[in-house]
Design a protein that fits this description.
The chain is an alpha+beta fold and 276 residues long. The protein folds into two domains: 118 residues, Pseudouridine synthase I, catalytic domain, N-terminal subdomain (Alpha-Beta Plaits); 129 residues, 2-Layer Sandwich (Alpha-Beta Plaits). The chain is built from six helices and ten strands; from the N terminus they run E-H-E-E-H-E-E-E-H-E-E-E-H-H-E-H. Strands 1, 2, 3, 4, 5, 6, 7, 8, 9 and 10 form a ten-stranded mixed β-sheet that branches. Helix 1 packs across helix 2 and helix 3 packs across helix 4. The longest helix is centred in the N-terminal third of the chain and has 13 residues. It is globular and about 60 Å long.
């Protein structure tokens, strides 16, 4: 059982296609599949005991992850490659474990994290995508990524993000600290990348919902900073679709040795490598 001194703590890097699931969190009274439920069921079979997992950042329905970090406690002893291979044989299509290892007992997937990173991918073409249609957000109007990037810089630092949080967000504070934010074009893909200490409910999708109108010329560049200052969600933009949103990385203190730096999704890696 968790907390037992005989238990070990295991961490894992998980990748998943969010369109196949009803978000991260296990739902007690709803039959829809969730990422957490699928992982716990698979790990419980491999460990031969009930497993409960904790993640670095819960994702909503339709949101994907290339580098989600989890941990769990268990009395089962397995080699890292046996954990990975065994768990993947029990997982449904759309979820895969990429790495697993025993970690220091002080490690916590959520509370040990010092930063989290998301990428929001927009397919910017007149015709909607036939492939990857549920892994990209489609915008038919031409986007000016440079204007979007300029506007986004107003969000840097620690701010009150009331204008960019969902109305039903349960966080006790609207303050978050954005460490970096950028908007870049890679051919037909426009990518918004944001790293912060943590995020509010729908925060990235609401940021995208503000930057996209700026990119198509419907709103001025200064609209982003004006909304931030207003601290009023009612004055904000629409919440952008979940299709293009990816949880891509988590920062931890180096001594934990968690290979969780920003990565993916796999189809944008060649473009990112060319510009790095």
């Amino acid at each position: 059982m968790p907390g037992d001194s005989k238990n070990i703590k295991v961490a894992a890097i998980v990748e998943y296609h969010g369109a196949h699931f009803h978000g991260w969190q296990r739902q007690k009274h709803h039959p829809e599949p969730t990422i957490q439920a699928a992982l716990e069921d698979a790990l419980s079979k491999i460990a031969n005991e009930s497993i409960s997992v904790v993640c670095a950042g819960r994702t909503d329905a339709g949101v994907h992850a290339s580098t989600q970090v989890i941990h769990f406690e268990t009395s089962a002893k397995r080699k890292p490659h046996n954990w990975v291979r065994g768990t993947n044989t029990q997982l449904p299509s759309g979820i895969v474990v990429r790495w697993m290892s025993e970690v220091d007992n002080e490690f916590h997937a959520r509370f040990s994290a010092t930063a989290r990173r998301y990428r929001y991918l927009i397919y910017n073409q007149e015709v909607r995508p036939g492939l990857l249609h549920d892994q990209l957000t489609w915008c038919r109007s031409p986007l000016d990524a440079d204007k979007m990037n300029t506007a986004a810089q107003a969000l840097l630092g620690e701010n009150d993000f009331t204008s960019f949080r969902a109305k039903d967000c349960q966080s006790h504070t609207p303050f978050r600290n954005i460490h970096s934010i950028s908007v870049k074009r890679f051919g037909e893909i426009v990518m918004i990348e944001v790293q912060a200490n943590a995020f509010l409910y729908h925060m990235i999708r609401n940021i995208a919902g503000v930057l996209i109108p700026i990119g198509v010329g419907k709103k001025p560049v200064q609209w982003c900073s004006e909304l931030l200052a207003l601290k009023d969600r009612n004055k904000g933009g629409v919440t952008a679709p979940s299709d293009g949103l990816y949880f891509v990385g988590v920062n931890y203190p180096e001594h934990f040795n968690i290979p969780s730096q920003p990565w993916g999704p796999v189809f944008v890696e060649p473009w990112l490598n060319k510009t790095s």
